[in-house]
Automatic annotation (TrEMBL), chain A:
Family listed: Belongs to the heme-copper respiratory oxidase family.
Protein name: Cytochrome c oxidase subunit 1
Subcellular location: Cell membrane; Membrane
Cytochrome oxidase subunit I profile domain location: 20-532
Species this protein is from: Methylomonas rivi
Annotated function: Cytochrome c oxidase is the component of the respiratory chain that catalyzes the reduction of oxygen to water. Subunits 1-3 form the functional core of the enzyme complex. CO I is the catalytic subunit of the enzyme. Electrons originating in cytochrome c are transferred via the copper A center of subunit 2 and heme A of subunit 1 to the bimetallic center formed by heme A3 and copper B.
Gene from which this protein is expressed: ctaD
UniProt xrefs under InterPro entries: Cyt_c_oxase-like_su1_dom, Cyt_c_oxase-like_su1_sf, Cyt_C_Oxase_1, Cyt_c_Oxase_su1_BS, Cyt_c_oxase_su1_dom, Cyt_c_oxidase_su1_bac
Keywords: Cell membrane, Copper, Electron transport, Heme, Iron, Membrane, Metal-binding, Respiratory chain, Translocase, Transmembrane, Transmembrane helix, Transport
This protein's pathway: Energy metabolism; oxidative phosphorylation
From TrEMBL, chain B:
Span of domain Heme-copper oxidase subunit III family profile: 3-291
Spans through the membrane: 12-31, 37-61, 82-104, 155-175, 187-204, 224-252, 272-290
Chief localization: membrane
Record PROSITE patterns: COX3
Pfam families for the chain: COX3
Protein name: cytochrome-c oxidase
Family membership noted in the UniProt record: Belongs to the cytochrome c oxidase subunit 3 family.
Compartment(s) of residence: Cell membrane; Membrane
Length: 537, 291
């Protein structure tokens, strides 16, 4: 029945020490490690589902003209690729890492609200199922872009209400997950684990959780208005009734801009966790990292209309949002500087997690610079809705968020499974990914600057060469990710051998998870740890 | 921060996953219903009932565990943080609709009228499409969407409802004092009064809606005024219902002798929620009815 995890382990009656047997273990589990695994596996599957959609897009764009799919399906693919990757892959993957790592990093026995944790995961699955079901409906899946702008999105067929309710369920899931993270971090830290001793991954997730609670209800409100505009005669986004389609854009981007930080802040956190370990130095500028994260989160709420420079804002608005957006470069620059300074004169080694992290620092910085280019409102009139923006945000998501998720996988797999992954194949995976991701996305900058619009299945002949290069890169990148699946399965089955508790040299100095055995037992820190390592030892 | 020395880690429960399945069935049913499918409403109802039953069983389990003393101080803090941030997420949800109201009154309507603060595009919508439209509030837009209507005044039923809801905040606090003073009679009477006032509020709001639809020509389809009016007050009314149901459960548990001055998270959560609903109503009364 009940399971009071007491201070003494000799109290065995009514404890669930081990996992339940069979499939039920995964369905009704309240264990943070089980739920973390569920999230991570689900995210990996969705990564391939979304990736398949991306390859359909890149196949169609391999040559000018219409080859494989009809235009409406193509638009469905761009829309669904984005929704699946954002809500099905990247966000759940970070929630999975949060579930696995936060309790172990702060010396807590579990997440604060374990049953809600379970519900949060299943809400995610339910939301994604609703979304996926739209692929098979009359009129096709939503095809108005992931931003779901009215009036276009109101023309969606039978899929429309399903997509809306899917967003609602995904929103509830995210809010519950975020509440859990906040309660865990504020209430469950081991004695001595002060806020400024927490690993940066925990800090970035704390701030991300606040972002999520603030923005997911906003998105829910926006899509609710879409629903009532379509089915219940309201006029929120209809000028004839006194509404305004631009209102939707404001609300959406009030959600949407912080949302991109929801995907990047935990990325920063993992990078700040991995780089010091392989540079064998404490993280440079720990406190400034924390403040920079907070500053980025704050700024993310006051820059949303830089997504709307061409919509007809007053000049004062254009200027305000332009300068406010440029401010983001400062805290972000602090972070890049700190990562570089952490590596400076470090005794660096280049295992796969470190390779992915270094590639992240370099390539994310490039994605940041193109962002800065677009923050200049008059220039953005040229870049807006071209492949330049596609290149920009893919640089901030693929070689940043996705690379860091891969890095996190390699970094913590030995802790999760007790086995070492295959370093050779890992490095092969890295080099294939790092090279092909640039073949894939770099040419899209040229295409965008030359004027190729995004979200079109066909294009003018002068764009043919770089599109072909980009598509070739996409296929190499996509298929090389299968190596990761192979490595994960191989590692679970034994990999290249058992690992120690610490796994990486001196990792125990950096963070608590390396002080428990590998694989991490089903319950860790049922009594709080006594020695708290710090980022700045 | 040493609260988790013996932090209660709950055993597994089937209710969260089943409640999720119920909610998903309900939403899929609603979507089918909106698409004109005959099975939609049945699915929706089944899902809704399943969701409620599962939620009820989950809460029953929690309350049994709480009463048998399994939760310590640390667990109580987690629950309170959970409730607090849940209410914050609700605040953000209402903020969207208040924001839409603000935007309509200060940007889109002036814009459709005389050009407003935006030059250029706003002007051309006015000049080309609706040159005769004057920016006034309330309005159902230049297209006279939904036909003529009479706006809802502040000092009829809405004012009475304001008094009802504010009084219910007082009775709720009175009940809390009773609980803290171990005066069960005061606790139960206070909760009864709160729940009663809450449901009376809902009844009056239903009357208000009935009048709006049948006598004033004011509907959800009455342009941006009708949209913002009904969505804001409607979501608020829904939250009042939810709050009153939560308080009813707390009342029932008080009758059964649950809660002590030290351990009464459910009461606190319900009271916080109720005050939140109260504050939203004050916002509505000022920005929707008076201004």
């Amino acid at each position: 029945m009940s399971a009071v995890v007491a201070e003494h382990d000799d109290h065995h009656d009514h404890h669930d020490h081990g996992p339940e047997k069979g499939i039920l273990r995964w369905i009704i589990t309240t264990n943070h490690k089980d739920i973390g695994t569920l999230y991570l596996v689900f995210a990996l599957i969705m990564f391939f589902v979304g990736g398949t959609m991306a390859l359909i897009i890149r196949s169609e764009l391999f040559e000018p003209g219409l080859q494989f799919v009809d235009p409406n399906f193509f638009n469905s693919m761009t829309t669904m690729h984005a929704l699946v990757m954002v809500f099905g892959a990247v966000m759940p993957a970070f929630v999975g890492l949060a579930n696995w790592m936060i309790p172990m990093m702060i010396g807590a026995p579990d997440m604060a609200l374990p049953r809600m944790n379970n519900m949060s995961f299943w809400m995610l699955v339910a939301g994604v199922l609703l979304l996926a079901s739209t692929l098979f409906m009359e009129g096709g899946a939503p095809a108005a872009g992931w931003t779901l702008y009215p009036p276009l999105v109101l023309q969606t067929g039978k899929a429309f209400p399903f997509a809306i309710f899917s967003v609602h369920m995904l929103g509830i899931s995210s809010i519950m997950g975020a509440i859990n993270v906040i309660a865990t971090i504020f209430n469950m830290r081991a004695p001595g684990m002060t806020l400024m001793k927490m690993p940066l991954f925990v800090w970035t997730w704390l701030i991300t959780a606040f972002l999520l609670i603030a923005i997911m209800p906003v998105f829910a409100g926006a899509v609710t208005m879409l629903l009532t505009d379509r089915f219940f005669d309201t006029s929120f986004f209809d000028a004839a009734g006194g509404g305004d389609p631009v209102l939707y854009q404001h609300i959406f981007w009030f959600f949407g801009h912080p949302e991109v930080y929801v995907m990047i802040l935990p990325t920063f956190g993992v990078a700040s966790t991995i780089i010091p370990v392989f540079a064998r130095k404490p993280l440079f500028g720990y406190a400034s990292m924390v403040y920079a994260t907070g500053a980025i989160a704050f700024l993310s709420f006051i820059v949303w209309a830089h997504h709307m420079f061409t919509v007809g804002l007053p000049v004062a608005g254009e200027l305000y949002f332009m300068y406010a957006t440029m401010l983001i470069a400062i805290p972000t620059g602090v972070k890049v500087f700190n990562w570089t300074a952490t590596m400076w004169k470090g005794s660096m080694t280049f295992e796969t997690p470190m390779l992915f992290s270094i590639a992240f620092v370099v390539l994310f910085t490039m994605g940041g610079f193109t962002g800065l280019m677009m923050s200049v409102a008059p220039s953005d009139f040229q870049y807006h809705d071209t492949y330049f923006i596609v290149a920009h945000f893919h640089y901030t998501l693929v070689p940043a968020s996705i690379f860091i998720l891969m890095a996190a996988g390699y970094y913590w797999l030995p802790k999760w499974t007790g086995n070492m992954y295959n370093e050779k194949i890992g490095q092969l995976h890295f080099w294939l990914s790092a090279i092909s991701v640039n073949i894939l996305f770099f040419p899209q900058h040229f295409l965008g600057l030359a004027g190729m619009p995004r979200r079109i299945p066909d294009y003018a002949i002068q764009f043919a060469d770089w599109n072909m290069v980009s598509s070739i890169g996409a296929f190499i990148y996509g298929f090389s990710q299968l190596l990761f699946v192979y490595i994960v399965i191989d590692t679970i089955r034994g990999g290249t051998g058992k690992v120690t508790a610490e796994v990486w040299e001196d990792a125990g100095k950096h963070s608590l998870e390396w002080t428990v055995p590998s694989p991490a037992p089903y319950h860790t820190f049922t009594t709080p740890p006594e020695i708290i390592p710090t980022e700045h030892f | 921060m040493s609260t988790h020395g013996a932090y209660y880690i709950p055993h597994k429960a089937v209710w969260p996953v089943l409640a999720t399945a119920g909610l998903m069935l309900m939403l899929a049913g609603f979507a089918n219903h909106l698409n004109g499918s005959a099975i939609g409403s049945g699915m929706m109802l089944t899902g809704f009932v399943a969701f409620l039953v599962m939620l009820g069983l989950w809460f029953a389990l929690q309350s049994t565990e709480s009463e048998s003393g399994m939760y310590n101080h640390g667990v109580g803090i987690s629950y309170r943080m959970g409730m607090m941030w849940f209410i914050f997420s609700e605040v953000m949800f209402f903020a969207v609709f208040f924001g839409a109201l603000w935007y309509a009154r200060n940007i889109s309507i002036p814009h459709l009228g005389e050009g407003g603060m935006l030059s250029g595009p706003g002007r051309s919508t006015h000049d080309v499409l609706w040159p005769a439209f004057q920016a006034v509030w309330p309005t159902n837009g230049p297209g006279n969407v939904g036909g003529e209507f009479e706006p809802m005044g502040a000092f009829g039923l809405p004012f009475i409802n304001t008094l009802l809801l504010l009084s219910s905040g007082v009775t709720c606090t009175w009940a809390h004092h009773g609980l803290l003073a171990k005066n069960r009679d005061q606790l139960i009477k206070g909760l009864l009064a709160t729940v009663g006032l809450g449901f009376l509020f809902v009844a009056f709001q239903a009357t208000e809606y009935y009048e709006a639809y049948h006598e004033m020509g004011l509907t959800l389809g009455s342009g941006i005024y009708g949209s913002t009016f009904f969505m804001l007050t409607g979501f608020h009314g829904f939250h009042v219902c939810v709050g009153a149901i939560i308080l009813s459960v707390v009342l029932f548990r008080s009758w059964k002798g649950h809660f002590t001055p030290e351990n009464h998270f459910a009461f606190e959560a319900a009271a916080w929620y109720w005050h939140f609903v109260d504050v939203v109503w004050l916002g509505l009364f000022i920005f929707v009815y008076i201004m």
